[in-house]
Design a protein that fits this description.
The protein has a domain of about 100 residues: 2-Layer Sandwich (Glycoprotein, Type 4 Pilin). Helix content is about 45%, strand content about 5%. The chain has 2 helices and 3 strands; from the N terminus they run ααβββ. The termini are far apart.
Protein backbone atom coordinates (compact mmCIF):
# COMPACT_ATOMS: atom_id res chain seq x y z
CA UNK A 1 0.00 0.00 0.00
CA UNK A 2 2.81 2.37 0.86
CA UNK A 3 4.51 1.51 -2.41
CA UNK A 4 1.35 2.35 -4.42
CA UNK A 5 0.94 5.67 -2.59
CA UNK A 6 4.56 6.60 -3.29
CA UNK A 7 4.06 5.87 -7.01
CA UNK A 8 0.95 8.03 -7.07
CA UNK A 9 2.81 10.89 -5.36
CA UNK A 10 5.65 10.66 -7.92
CA UNK A 11 3.13 10.84 -10.79
CA UNK A 12 1.50 13.91 -9.26
CA UNK A 13 4.90 15.56 -8.83
CA UNK A 14 5.84 14.87 -12.48
CA UNK A 15 2.47 16.19 -13.65
CA UNK A 16 2.90 19.40 -11.66
CA UNK A 17 6.41 19.90 -13.01
CA UNK A 18 5.28 19.35 -16.61
CA UNK A 19 2.38 21.81 -16.16
CA UNK A 20 4.72 24.50 -14.92
CA UNK A 21 4.23 27.84 -16.82
CA UNK A 22 6.76 30.26 -18.26
CA UNK A 23 8.65 32.58 -16.00
CA UNK A 24 8.58 36.34 -16.41
CA UNK A 25 12.20 36.33 -17.60
CA UNK A 26 11.42 33.77 -20.33
CA UNK A 27 8.47 35.85 -21.51
CA UNK A 28 10.57 39.03 -21.59
CA UNK A 29 13.28 37.29 -23.62
CA UNK A 30 10.73 36.09 -26.19
CA UNK A 31 9.13 39.55 -26.44
CA UNK A 32 12.56 41.15 -26.86
CA UNK A 33 13.48 38.74 -29.67
CA UNK A 34 10.17 39.44 -31.45
CA UNK A 35 10.71 43.21 -31.08
CA UNK A 36 14.22 42.96 -32.55
CA UNK A 37 12.96 40.96 -35.52
CA UNK A 38 10.17 43.50 -36.16
CA UNK A 39 12.66 46.38 -35.91
CA UNK A 40 14.76 44.77 -38.64
CA UNK A 41 11.94 43.56 -40.90
CA UNK A 42 9.39 46.38 -40.43
CA UNK A 43 11.15 49.11 -42.45
CA UNK A 44 11.68 46.75 -45.39
CA UNK A 45 8.01 45.82 -45.46
CA UNK A 46 6.99 49.48 -45.37
CA UNK A 47 9.44 50.24 -48.18
CA UNK A 48 7.92 47.48 -50.33
CA UNK A 49 4.48 48.91 -49.64
CA UNK A 50 5.55 52.39 -50.83
CA UNK A 51 7.18 50.90 -53.94
CA UNK A 52 4.08 48.88 -54.75
CA UNK A 53 1.87 51.98 -54.57
CA UNK A 54 4.17 53.80 -57.01
CA UNK A 55 4.10 50.81 -59.38
CA UNK A 56 0.30 50.67 -59.13
CA UNK A 57 0.10 54.36 -60.07
CA UNK A 58 2.35 53.76 -63.10
CA UNK A 59 0.17 50.88 -64.28
CA UNK A 60 -3.03 52.89 -63.79
CA UNK A 61 -1.55 55.83 -65.73
CA UNK A 62 -0.62 53.48 -68.58
CA UNK A 63 -4.19 52.12 -68.58
CA UNK A 64 -5.62 55.65 -68.67
CA UNK A 65 -3.22 56.56 -71.51
CA UNK A 66 -4.40 53.54 -73.52
CA UNK A 67 -8.03 54.53 -72.95
CA UNK A 68 -7.23 58.10 -74.02
CA UNK A 69 -5.61 56.82 -77.21
CA UNK A 70 -8.74 54.79 -78.01
CA UNK A 71 -10.84 57.89 -77.36
CA UNK A 72 -8.58 59.84 -79.74
CA UNK A 73 -9.02 57.22 -82.48
CA UNK A 74 -12.80 57.53 -82.22
CA UNK A 75 -13.22 61.27 -81.59
CA UNK A 76 -10.20 62.67 -83.43
CA UNK A 77 -9.02 64.58 -80.37
CA UNK A 78 -8.26 64.04 -76.72
CA UNK A 79 -10.79 65.20 -74.12
CA UNK A 80 -10.25 68.78 -73.00
CA UNK A 81 -8.97 69.46 -69.50
CA UNK A 82 -12.42 70.76 -68.57
CA UNK A 83 -13.99 67.44 -69.65
CA UNK A 84 -11.38 65.50 -67.73
CA UNK A 85 -10.98 61.76 -67.53
CA UNK A 86 -14.71 61.29 -67.00
CA UNK A 87 -14.99 61.71 -70.79
CA UNK A 88 -13.68 58.15 -70.93
CA UNK A 89 -16.87 56.96 -69.17
CA UNK A 90 -19.54 59.42 -70.30
CA UNK A 91 -19.92 61.10 -73.67
CA UNK A 92 -18.99 64.77 -73.44
CA UNK A 93 -21.49 67.13 -75.06
CA UNK A 94 -18.95 68.34 -77.64
CA UNK A 95 -18.04 64.87 -78.94
CA UNK A 96 -20.06 63.42 -81.83
CA UNK A 97 -18.25 60.11 -82.43
CA UNK A 98 -17.89 58.45 -79.06
CA UNK A 99 -17.78 54.65 -78.78
CA UNK A 100 -17.13 54.39 -75.07
CA UNK A 101 -16.99 53.76 -72.30
CA UNK A 102 -13.25 53.31 -72.59
CA UNK A 103 -12.70 52.22 -68.98
CA UNK A 104 -14.14 49.28 -67.08
CA UNK A 105 -16.29 50.09 -64.10
CA UNK A 106 -18.36 53.18 -63.61
CA UNK A 107 -15.73 55.49 -62.12
CA UNK A 108 -12.32 56.83 -63.02
CA UNK A 109 -9.84 55.16 -60.66
CA UNK A 110 -8.19 57.24 -57.96
CA UNK A 111 -4.45 57.03 -57.45
CA UNK A 112 -3.19 54.54 -54.81
CA UNK A 113 -3.26 57.30 -52.20
CA UNK A 114 -6.97 57.95 -52.79
CA UNK A 115 -6.69 61.20 -54.75
CA UNK A 116 -7.85 61.83 -58.33
CA UNK A 117 -5.31 61.87 -61.13
CA UNK A 118 -4.56 65.30 -62.61
CA UNK A 119 -5.36 65.43 -66.34
CA UNK A 120 -4.23 68.27 -68.58
CA UNK A 121 -4.93 68.54 -72.30
CA UNK A 122 -3.06 69.85 -74.09
CA UNK A 123 -0.23 68.87 -71.81
CA UNK A 124 3.12 70.50 -71.25
CA UNK A 125 4.91 67.26 -72.15
CA UNK A 126 2.70 65.93 -74.94
CA UNK A 127 -0.87 65.85 -76.17
CA UNK A 128 -1.96 65.25 -72.58
CA UNK A 129 -0.43 64.90 -69.14
CA UNK A 130 -1.61 62.53 -66.42
CA UNK A 131 -0.11 63.10 -62.98
CA UNK A 132 -0.29 61.57 -59.53
CA UNK A 133 1.33 63.74 -56.89
CA UNK A 134 2.44 60.74 -54.82
CA UNK A 135 2.11 60.15 -51.11
CA UNK A 136 2.22 63.80 -50.07
CA UNK A 137 -0.38 64.96 -52.61
CA UNK A 138 1.73 67.97 -53.63
CA UNK A 139 3.64 68.68 -56.80
CA UNK A 140 7.30 67.68 -56.65
CA UNK A 141 8.89 65.55 -53.99
CA UNK A 142 11.23 62.60 -53.73
CA UNK A 143 10.93 58.98 -52.67
CA UNK A 144 7.35 57.99 -51.81
CA UNK A 145 6.31 61.63 -52.26
CA UNK A 146 7.63 61.76 -55.84
CA UNK A 147 5.21 62.55 -58.66
CA UNK A 148 4.26 59.75 -61.05
CA UNK A 149 3.61 61.06 -64.54
CA UNK A 150 2.54 59.86 -67.98
CA UNK A 151 5.61 61.28 -69.70
CA UNK A 152 8.20 59.45 -67.58
CA UNK A 153 6.81 55.93 -68.10
Amino acid sequence: MVNATARCDRRRLRTRQSERGFTLVEMLVVITIIALIMALVGPRVLNYLAESKAKTAKIQIESLATALDLYFLDAGQYPASSEGLTALLQRPGSTVTWNGPYLKGNAVPSDPWGRPYVYRAPGQHGSYDIISFGADGQEGGTGAAADITSWTQ
